[in-house]
């Protein structure tokens, strides 16, 4: 339930088209629903503008299914991240319109139309191996109503590939840069554009990459201005932040 729905409910009570008991029934799960193993934050969209997202890793299939089964009743769009195919099949058994992005490992359920932004977010990867993290960012941004341009495999090892797409990137409102290895692509783009850059270090790379730490430190130490950095492999965090900036 978002602010507009709360206002509509109160107006209906005021006008007499809804009785108090029915209104209380609709409000009884605010601010959260306690399922025992999870407390679903139904108040989040009112506070921050976005409904709660399910981080599926570490949860059992039955827990994920139970959480989504309740969330469906609220008629919001639903996003589950780091979800297995097994979890998706369980969710699909109770909600046939659920969709699964194998690369992003996301479950999405679209219960209502969200107006799509006229401005767009560019999501740029250094390599093909970075695409799963980029897709998590893309799916996140899209379900929150953002137009997304995907520009993949344009890393510094062949920088002419980046220049070929530079005009598309420059016209976006915000840029997400996803890179592993030494993570240099964020610095390069930061020096070429006049838009904010959200850098996502990935765990892609050989041993001295230290599971993404080398890319993380390179991005944090970038001499280019206007770059913010999220955690290693955190495509969701990048997509969420970019959505907030794109809608300002």
Automatic annotation (TrEMBL):
GO terms for molecular function: hydrolase activity. GO terms for biological process: 'de novo' IMP biosynthetic process. This is 1-(5-phosphoribosyl)-5-amino-4-imidazole-carboxylate (AIR) carboxylase. InterPro entries: P2CMN_synthase_LarB, PurE_dom. Residues 119-248 form the PurE domain. The lineage of its organism: Bacteria, Bacillati, Bacillota, Clostridia, Eubacteriales. It comes from Clostridium carboxidivorans P7. It comes from the Bacteria. Gene3D superfamilies: 3.40.50.1970. Pfam families: AIRC. Coiled coil: none annotated.
């Amino acid at each position: 339930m978002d602010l507009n729905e709360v206002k509509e409910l109160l107006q209906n009570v005021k006008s007499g088209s809804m009785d108090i008991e029915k209104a209380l029934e609709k409000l009884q799960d605010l601010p959260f629903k306690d399922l025992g193993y999870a407390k679903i934050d139904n108040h989040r969209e009112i506070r921050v503008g976005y409904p709660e997202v399910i981080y599926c890793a570490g949860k059992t299939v039955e827990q994920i299914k139970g959480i989504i089964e309740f969330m469906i009743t609220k008629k919001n769009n639903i996003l589950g991240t780091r979800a297995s195919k097994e979890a998706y099949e369980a969710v699909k058994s109770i909600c046939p319109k659920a969709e699964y992005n194998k690369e992003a490992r996301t479950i999405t359920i679209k219960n209502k139309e969200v107006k799509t932004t006229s401005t767009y977010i560019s999501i740029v990867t250094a390599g093909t191996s970075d695409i799963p993290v980029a897709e998590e960012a893309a799916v996140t941004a899209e379900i929150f109503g953002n137009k997304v341009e995907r520009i993949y495999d344009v890393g510094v090892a062949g920088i002419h590939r980046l220049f070929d797409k530079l005009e598309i990137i420059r016209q976006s409102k915000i840029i997400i840069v996803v890179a592993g290895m030494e993570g240099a692509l964020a610095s390069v783009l930061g020096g070429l554009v006049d838009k904010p850059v959200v850098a996502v270090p990935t765990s892609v790379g050989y041993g001295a990459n230290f599971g993404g730490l080398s890319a993380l430190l390179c991005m944090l130490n970038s001499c280019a201005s206007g770059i913010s950095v999220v955690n290693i492999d955190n495509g969701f965090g990048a997509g969420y932040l970019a959505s907030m900036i794109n809608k300002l």
